Amino acid sequence: MTDEPQKHAETLIRTLRDKNHPEHAARFADVLSGNLVGAALLSALRELSDTLMAGVEALDPSAVVALEDFRLSVDRHLTSGRADEPPANR
């Protein structure tokens, strides 16, 4: 990407963040950085963990707490790429 489009893209990302759209800003930044594969794998992992949680809860409700911790960890990685942020409500 040349310098001028890069500057416009960075301005758009800042504007999205300033207007309280951090998820859209993060997705746009991922597209620009080429990090879509990692995000797709994490999304697939989230879907898998949700499916597993539903099955485990049906069999053993007490085991759900451990799986919920795992799911929250995946969510933290999906929210704007920072593991230290709380998971997004989806």
Walkthrough of the structure:
It is a single chain. With 90 residues, the chain is mostly helical. Helix content is 74%, strand content 0%. The chain has four helices and no strands. The chain has helices spanning 3-18, 22-33, 36-59, 64-78. The longest helix has 24 residues, at 36-59. It is elongated and about 55 Å long.
Topology readout:
Blueprint: H1 3-18, H2 22-33, H3 36-59, H4 64-78
In whole angstroms, how far apart are the ends?
32 Å
What is the C-alpha radius of gyration, as a whole number of Å? Answer: 17 Å
Order of helices and strands: HHHH
- Structural class comes to mainly alpha
Number of strands: 0
Overall pLDDT, averaged?
76
Sequence stretches where pLDDT stays below 50 over 5 or more residues: 82-90
Q: Work out the helix count.
A: 4
Helix content: over 70%
From the spread of the alpha carbons, the general shape counts as elongated
